[in-house]
Design goal:
The chain is 41% helix and 20% strand. The protein has 5 helices and 4 strands; from the N terminus they run E-E-E-H-H-H-E-H-H. A 4-stranded antiparallel beta sheet has the order 3-2-1-4. A hairpin with a 7-residue loop joins strand 2 and strand 3. The N and C termini lie close together (10 Å). The relative contact order is 0.18.
Length: 131
């Protein structure tokens, strides 16, 4: 998987993430976690543009004056996974414990989602959180 470096800044309930390698790609939210999730979503929306970009590492971005990274102001780097969503459904066969499948189905139903949508959403959140 490809990762882009984001620059996280903010305080209180105003946070932002900008992606120097993709001008115009940014996220925001009331917490660092929300801003990171929003930036990951923005990065997915820019998948076509991101495909042609070779992401730089954090050191290269820190040394690039145009990135305007300011650690003295409390900015930090975050790694953002770049998901390429093709829009082409693909069938996958997985095995689950019967009780776990029942819990997944109940949670999906409570949220008004299909099993597939729920499982994919949960998996992508986990991937993003571990990024």
């Amino acid at each position: 998987m490809t990762y882009f470096v984001g620059i996280l800044d903010g305080q209180g309930d105003v946070w932002g993430v900008r992606v120097p390698d993709l001008p115009g790609c940014h996220g925001g939210g009331p917490s660092p976690e929300a801003a990171i999730q929003d930036a990951i979503s923005a990065l997915a929306d820019m998948a076509e543009e991101a495909r042609d970009v070779k992401p730089r590492d954090a050191l290269a971005i820190a040394r690039d004056p145009s990135a305007e990274f300011n650690s003295a102001a409390g900015e930090s780097f975050v790694m953002l996974p770049a998901f390429h969503v093709t829009g082409v459904p693909t069938k996958a066969n997985i095995s689950l414990d019967k009780g776990q499948l029942a819990a997944i189905d109940a949670a999906a139903k409570a949220r008004g989602l299909t099993r597939s949508t729920f499982v994919v959403s949960a998996a992508m959140e986990k991937i993003a959180a571990d990024g």
